Amino acid sequence: MSRVGKKPVEVPANVKVSVKDRAVEVEGPKGKLSFTHRNEVMVDWNESDRAIVCAIDEGDKDNRVAKALWGTTRAIVQNMVKGVTEGYEKTLKIEGVGWNASVGGQTLELNLGFAHPVKLAIPQGVSVTANKQDITIQSADKQQVGHFAAKVRSQREPEPYNGKGIRYSDETIKRKQGKQFGA
Fold first, then answer.
1. Helix (H/G/I), strand (E/B), else coil: 119
2. Phi and psi angles of residue 45, each rounded to the nearest 5 degrees, phi first
3. What whole-number distance in Å separates Cα of residue 170 and Cα of residue 183?
C-alpha cells in the first residue's frame, strides 16, 4: 500500500479541476497545468469534498510498478495544485569576479568568464529575473522550474577550490584546500 497515494489531495476553493479519461487539468490564479496519468492508476475528482483521490485496482495491490505509479501520480497532482495556487521559485547565485546575468526579452544572458556570453532561451510559462549576481526562476510548473535552474547551473558548475560558479542559493560548496608549496 502506498502511504502517499492513499492521502487525498485537498483543493482550495479558487482552483478549478477537471478529470476526463486519463487527463487531469488544474487551473488557478497562477496558471493552468495538465497531466496525463498512466492506465494503472485511477484519478477521481470529488466535488463535494473538494479533493482529488488516486487509487489502483485491488488486483494491482501486489504489483510493484502500479504501487510506485500510485504514489508518483498523487505527488504530481499535489504539485500541480500547489503550483497553480502558490507557484514555485528557485534562486541561483553567481560567484565570480565580473560574472553576471541579465534578461532581455525571452533570453537569459550569462557572462561567466568565457570569450562570449552564454545565451539561454527562457521556456514559455517561466519567468526569470536577474539582478547581477542573483537569478530567480518562477513558474507554476515545478518540473519546468527545476529543469531550467539545472540547465542554468550546468553552464558553470561551482568548483571546490575558489568557489566560483553558479550555485543554488541554499547549496553549500564543500571547499578543498589546494596545493601546499614548500613542504
1. strand
2. -105, 120
3. 37
Measured CA distances, 174 to 105, 153, 167, 171, 179 (Å): 35, 16, 12, 10, 16
Scanning the chain, the segments in alpha helix (DSSP H) are: 3-6, 64-85, 142-153
Residue-wise pLDDT for 123-173, tens only, equals: 999 999 999 899 999 999 999 999 999 999 999 999 999 889 999 999 999
**CA dist list (Å): 166 to 90, 171, 176:** 13, 10, 17
Q: Return phi, psi of residue 151, to 5°.
A: -65, -40
Rounded Cα–Cα distance for residues 183 and 179 (Å): 10
Which residue type sits at 58?
E
Whose CA is closest to 105, among 88, 127, 85?
A: 127
Give the residue among 129, 123, 73, 126 at the shortest CA–CA distance from 101. 129
Tens of pLDDT, residue by residue over 84-105, are 999 999 999 999 999 999 999 9
Backbone region of residue 8 per phi and psi (left: phi > 0; alpha: psi in -120 to 50; beta: other values): beta
Beta bridge partners of 56: 41
3-class DSSP state of 153: helix
